[in-house]
Amino acid sequence: MVKAERKPIEEIKDAINGYEKVLVTGCGGCVSVCLVGGQREVNELNAQLNIYLKNENIEKQLDGYTVERQCNDQFLEELEPKIDNYDCLLSMACGAGVQNLAKRFPKIPVFPVVNTVSIGIDKDIGMYEERCRACGHCVLGYTGGICPVTRCSKGLFNGPCGGTNNECCEVSQEIPCAWLDIFNRLKAQDRLDDIKKIYVPMEWHNQTPRTIIQEPYEKRYSV
Amino acid sequence: MESDTKPDTQPEMKSEMKSGSNFEKILKAGHFAFTGELGPPRGCNVEHIKEKASFLKGNVDMVNITDNQTAMVRMSSWAAAIILMGEGLEPNYQMVCRDRNRLAMQADLLGAYAHGLRNILCLSGDHQQFGDHPFSKGVFDIDSMQLVAMVKKMRDEGKFLGGADIDQPPKMFIGAAANPFAEPFEWRVHRLAKKIEAGADFIQTQCVYNMEKIREWIKQANDMGLTEKTYILPGVTPMKSIGMARYMQSKVPGMDVPDEIIKRLRGVNRKKVADEGIAIACEQIEEFKEMKGVAGVHMMAIEWEHKVPEIAERAKVLPRPEV
């Protein structure tokens, strides 16, 4: 799922500077799962902001409300009657959710609370690792289920480069070399022949905004 | 003068010149090649290039012009290469995948060839995080393997990567890099095979210090018949100091500096360390001259260009052949 991390509190504070009534809008989707943008985090943020504001003698009304998902208009309906009571919205959602919220209520300023970081996996509670860059042209079948676009710092399709260093990436001893992992996995599966072939230049499908229509629905949306 | 030909190890590519570069001619004539390296300036200092070039002239067959090495901004490699040509030296135009997409790469290649550049070395490039613009966007639109194949397609098929015909295609002698010392060792010879299949006419390796490992890697390449399909030039970089040796050992990714090298440098008088570094390099070169499957040596005297005449002399690779 989408993984995000909260922006520094100073940046959030600056964003709402000058707005009196603020609705902090949580999202029950991915950001809730990765413990950064659900109802609990809405409450935590408001408590934190209230302390800051109190210390600086600033009066503001901070409320919180969490919808099922901000990336679907239907779930934003319930905000309709509340919106007029606020001067701005803080969105706890990922970049897609923030944009959808801002489009649904175009007259009111919407500010993001989180930085959307990746599509990733749960490594442990509160710890997430990036696994997918949504390049739109999945090569995992060829690379033993290890993504070279995401996990190789240079996104190489015919790795490893000459920088493999103590089994790690030349960039950091904290980052395992993706191509070493690809090699080891394919070797264990007796599939090294797969990567002996030269992988041709990638057709990048993520260079324009993409809309997808699932096949069973094609008829429904065809004009 | 001792013979510098090694007829038993030359790739079977003598028939037709691919680029007609001096370097290609030297290799195809069976001479033991000796190439150098020059890093462009961090500015527009042309005199700096000319000064470095003066130490290399007559002592090497070709000079690699690095492309924003270690991800630091420098004069573009094609531009510095043209200046070098004006000094009567033949450049090896290095191109990394980090800084430009496939359009820019092909465009630069056309321009480089139009200006007379005939050799190219295709590289991935150090990650931008190492350099002085660590938060720049790394391009890596294609990788070094795909770059080799693209330059070959342009040369041999006269077509751009996108498929369109080229009006007068660039005929480059195509080089690629290899690092036998990075993990996994077992895969490195297969990666070499891939680069040859992609179109690498010659290979320059990472700096060699671990002779045992390079012997093994070259043997694997010999056994797989790869040294008959490409010219391999191991990289040699003389150690200037113990500090440099320790830095290379611990800080440079993919570098394999055995403890014996450091021990040997420590074993001599402090004033003789650099001299010992050159002595080690010369011993390596002597061994490479005799090693089956090795076509020459790439001398990377990093910021030590003024020492190249002495190194070449002591390595007994002078005079350079005229072809």
Question: How would you explain this protein's 3D organization?
Answer:
With 223 residues, chain A is of the alpha/beta class. In chain A, 31% of the residues lie in helices and 22% in strands. In chain A, the strands form three sheets. Chain A has a four-stranded parallel sheet, with helices on both faces. Chain A has a three-stranded antiparallel sheet with strand order 1-6-7. Chain A is globular. Chain B has 323 residues and is α/β, with parallel strands linked by helices. In chain B, helix 6 (185-198) packs across helix 7 (211-223) and helix 9 packs across helix 10 (273-290).
Helices and strands in order:
The complex is a heterodimer of chains A (223) and B (323).
Chain A: E1 2-6, H1 9-15, E2 21-27, H2 30-33, H3 39-55, E3 61-67, H4 73-76, H5 80-83, E4 88-91, H6 95-104, E5 110-112, E6 114-124, E7 127-132, H7 148-151, E8 168-169, E9 172-176, H8 178-188, H9 193-196, H10 218-221
Parallel strand pairs in A: 2-3, 2-4, 4-5
Antiparallel strand pairs in A: 1-6, 6-7, 8-9
Chain B: H1 22-28, E1 33-38, H2 46-56, E2 62-65, H3 77-86, E3 91-96, H4 102-114, E4 119-123, H5 144-157, E5 173-178, H6 185-198, E6 202-207, H7 211-223, E7 231-236, H8 242-250, H9 259-266, H10 273-290, E8 296-299, H11 308-314
Parallel strand pairs in B: 1-2, 1-8, 2-3, 3-4, 4-5, 5-6, 6-7, 7-8
Q: In percent terms, what proportion of residues of chain A is strand?
A: 15-25%
Biggest interface, chains and residues, is:
A-B, 29 and 36 residues
N- and C-termini, Cα separation of chain A: 32 Å
Structural class from helices and strands of chain B? alpha/beta
The secondary-structure class of chain A comes to: alpha/beta
How much helix is in the residues of chain A? 25-40%
Based on CA atoms alone, the radius of gyration of chain A comes out at: 22 Å
Mean pLDDT of chain A: 97
> Termini separation of chain B (Å)?
17 Å
What value does the average pLDDT of chain B take?
95
- For the secondary structure, the number of strands of chain B is 8
Taken as a percent bin, the fraction of beta residues of chain B is 5-15%
Strand tally of chain A is 9
User: SSE string of chain A, helix = H, strand = E?
Assistant: EHEHHEHHEHEEEHEEHHH
What top-tier CATH class of chain B fits best?
Alpha Beta
Report the biggest beta sheet of chain A as strand number plus sense, adding barrel if it closes: 4 strands, parallel
